[in-house]
Every structure is written in C-alpha cells, then in structure tokens.
Amino acid sequence: MSDNLPEPLATAATMPQLVRAAAAAYGEAVAIRLNGETIPDAQASFRELDERSAALASGLVARGVGKGARVGFIAGNGPFFAVAFAAIGRIGAVAVPISTMIRANELVRVLRQSDVGGLIVQRRFLGNDYATRLTEALPALAESGPALRLAAAPFLRWVACEGEGLPESFSTLDDLVAEGAAIPTSFLAAIESEVHPTDQLVEIYTSGSMALPKGVKHDHGPMLFRARYLAGMLGATRGKEMAAYLPMFWVGGMMMALMPDWVAGATTVCSERTLSNSQVAMGSVLSAEDLAKTAGNPPWWGLGMSETLGPYSWGDVHRAPGHPVCAPMDHFAPGYEVRTADEAGNPVPEGTPGEVQLRGYAVTRGLHKIARDENFTPDGFYRTGDMGVWEGSRLHFVGRSGDMIKTAGSNVSPAEVEMELQQIDGVHSAYVVGIPDRERGQLVVAAIVPREGASLDFAAIEAELRKRLSSYKVPRAWLAIRRDEVPLL
Questions:
Q1: In the list 53, 63, 92, 166, which could disulfide-bond 170, CB 3.0-4.6 Å?
Q2: How confident is the model over 161-191, as pLDDT tens digits?
Q3: What is the Rg, in whole angstroms, of the alpha carbon atoms belonging to the chain?
Q4: H-helix or E-strand containing 39?
C-alpha cells in the first residue's frame, strides 16, 4: 500500500506527520463525513482536520498540556472525534477516547483508572447530554468552581465541553480554542517536531475480564505502520468512500476505518449509530442462522484484539470444517510473531491446543497500571488468553483459556463440544460449561436450545456425541433452555 502513497504519507510515523502530510496531499477532499447528521460540523476536509486540530492543540498547549499528559475525550464517530484525537496526539499527549455508551458509574471508574488530567466533551450525541452524564457521574462537578479537586477523579483538572448553560466547573470548547490564539504556529511546530514514533499516542479502554477497565497502550509508530497495512488490506484509496461501521473509541473503528482512511486519502463515512459485535461475539459457537449473518467479503479476518491494533490474521476461507467460531488463520500480518504455548510457556506441538501468544512491533507496549509480567512472558510474548491449535501452517481458534474445562486432569474446549452438538438434529444452539466437582475438579455440562418444534432426547444426543468425541468430553448433565433465556451481551 505504501508504494502508492505520497512519500510523506508513506513514511509518516507520528500523528503530527500524518495530519500535516494528509492536508498537503489531499487538501479539500472530504476526509470524514457524518451521514444523517443531527449535529453541526457534519463533515471536514483533510485541510480542515489539520487546521481545526492545530487550533485545539494550541489551546491544549496554552492550558499546560505537554508530552505524556493524559487527555480524555468523549465523542461519537465523526469530525469531532477526528479533530480531538489529532489535537491531542500532535502535541505528544496521550489520547484516551471514552465510549459514548458509558454509564455514570462506569465513567467514574475509567476517569479514575486512566488518570486523565483534562477532558474534552462532545455535548450531545444520539440524544445523550454528556455534560449531564458527567455531573451524574461526578456530582461534585455541579458544585465545584473551575479549579477541580475531585476525590473520585483526583487527577482531573479541567473539562472543556461544547454548548451553553454549562456548570461553572466546565469551560467551553470555544474558550479552550481561544486560549490557543496566543500560541505561535512556530511554537506548535517545534512541539510537533519532538513527537517521536516511540511516544505513546493512545490508550484504549475496554472492560476485559478484570474488575477495573483496562487501558491498552499504543505508540505513534506502530499505529501508523498498521494504518498503512490495513489501508491496503481494506482497499482504502484516495477519494473512495469507506463506511465506518464500528465505534472509533475502540480499536475496531479506529484501526479499521479512521486511521487507514486518513493515510490513504479515503473518505470515512460515519453514522451516529454503529454496530457492535454483540451477536457474533468471539468465543461461543454460533448457530447456522447466526453464522449466516457474519458472511461478508474477503479478507476473512481471524483473531484480533485491542492489544494488537485490530486483526493480526486472516484465512483463505470464511470457515474451516470443524471450526465454526472464526476464520482459520492462514496468514499473519507483518509486525507479529505468533506461537501457541502451554501454561509453563513451552511451545506445544501441532494438534495440541495451546494459548496463542504474540510479540512484535504492533503488539501493545503494556496495560496502564498493570505490571508487565502479569500479561507478558519473560521472553516478551503477550498472553492473549485465546486458545489455538496448529494444523500444518494453519492456526485454528478453539476457545478462550478461561473457558477451558479441566475435568479429571484433561482439558476440554467448550467450543469443540458445542460444535459437535449443533450438528445433531433438533439442536439449535448449545452452551457447554464446567461446574465444580469434588472428585473430577469440574464436570462438563450442557444447556441446549432446541430447534423450533423439536423435542430433545438427551439419551440419544449423548449416545450420538459419544460416537464423535472422547468420553471425557461428553457432558455429564443436560439442561433444556429457551432461546430467550440466553443472555447476549
């Protein structure tokens, strides 16, 4: 892909380099547009993204934001998001995008965990008033003056928001930009020249499996490296309209839309409502009806996560026989070294399930406030928690390590048992889990949703399953449930 880019974009390794080079190369072409807009400023050209983010960046500098400072922002997909992200990144600060879906109690946890010193807020999005949500999350904001001293978010010093009628503790976004008028353009350029590829650009907050949200760190260089690669894989080219289906405050929308499009000069077309992957969540086997919803066009993406800046693998086919959860991993993107290992960190042979572990340029540098050895092996591999099995040069995903059932000393992959169950007549979907057992450690049990009009004969199902699987993988207890009893998050 980089061979087809103007030279400054083919080599850009920081956010300021990207923003300036894209403005010079693509100028008045529309960079990002919000369809069905209900807010002002519904589109911006590449030149406007440069100018508007420079003005906001100058305001941040005037307010004392420097390299490494942590600045959060709440914004939906659209020009506001792109401007805020670029402004923070081009002065070497750390951009912390926050979900527009976040509720008050969750917001407090993210603000406290992320240590943000300032917060930029889009006032309204999808009918939500985020100034109101902030005061719900932090009631002291409604009573505080401009100098914030909030025990619930002790590092937060200022909030800048769009709109009128704000609490006294808020400043307006216009005021923030106005403060930057005193910053010479030459001074901003000097600051940008000291932003390096090894500086942190962004921290993505996801819920993960921990009690607190986790902040995934990524640097300028790896993000620009991945943006160019993904632009080629996605077919983003100059002037082409590219739909942003996923929210940009998570890696999906940021790295599968905004950043590749920006590099390539494509137009990112946004809608206020984005998709989630709630109905096709990785880690549980999908029914035939649900699987049909996931069919699209190649490349057939395999595994990816926030820690890898999106998908790091793809398959030559949509699904491989016997592995319906995700595409087989026939190819791995540059920037990753992939292995499967046992609990001791030793590589496992072909045909044996092991944890998928990664290291390389495009893998996260670490998680905020979490010791590196909690997630990385001594030789630098990131423990993904995904379980995979090699078949020659092809890697298959078989489940999450936390989902593996240990019964009588043997490991059972719920996904494998679910896959076999769903091939039996009368079974719509199956959910296999382990429950504690004094003698065996865990018992394998299954909850089955029957197809419409079908009745379940568990004795017959068990007999059929014993023909397909080793005996220790066959559930010891069964439960019939309705489809509406299955919670989909």
A1: 166
A2: 998 889 999 999 999 999 999 999 999 999 9
A3: 24
A4: none
DSSP annotation of 352 reads S
Residue 451 has pLDDT above 80, yes or no: yes
Helix axes 15-26, 79-90, angle to 10 degrees: 130
122, 22, 92, 117: CA torsion to nearest 10: 0
Q: Report, in this order, helix, strand and coil percent for the chain, each rounded to 5.
A: 35, 25, 40
- Could you read off the pLDDT of 190-220 as tens digits, one per residue? 999 999 999 999 999 985 433 467 899 999 9
Q: CA dist 463 to 200, 378, 474, 488, Å?
A: 56, 45, 9, 30
User: What's the length of the chain?
Assistant: 489
| Nearest residue to 85 via CA among 262, 265, 276 | 262
Bin 443: left if φ > 0, else alpha if -120 < ψ < 50, else beta: beta
Q: Which of 306, 298, 349 is nearest to 328 (CA)?
A: 298
Residue 54 CA to residue 148 CA, distance in Å, equals 26
Which is it for the CA torsion 167, 169, 173, 176, positive or negative?
A: positive
Q: Which amino acid is at 431?
A: Y
Half-sphere exposure of 251 (CA within 13 A, CB side): 24
Pairwise CA distance, residues 163 & 350, whole Å: 59
Residues paired with 386 in a beta bridge: 400
- DSSP letters, 173-228, are HHHHHHHGGGS-HHHHHHHHHT--TTSEEEEEEE-TTSSS-EEEEEEHHHHHHHHH
* CA–CA distances in Å: residue 160 to residues 32, 35, 166, 458: 23, 26, 10, 60
User: Beta strand 313-315 with 310-311: parallel, antiparallel or unpaired?
Assistant: unpaired
Nearest Cα neighbor of 170 from 37, 74, 40, 42 is 74
Long-range contacts of 4-13 (CB under 8 A, 24+ apart): 4/237, 5/228, 5/263, 5/264, 9/263, 10/228, 12/224, 12/263, 13/197, 13/220, 13/221, 13/224, 13/225
Q: Which residues contact 48 (CB under 8 A, 6 or more apart)?
A: 31, 79
Q: pTM, whole model, 2 decimals?
A: 0.83
Q: Which of 284, 282, 287, 291 is nearest to 424 (CA)?
A: 287
Distance CA 270, CA 256 (A): 13
Average pLDDT, the chain: 89
The Cα–Cα gap between 471 and 424 comes to 17
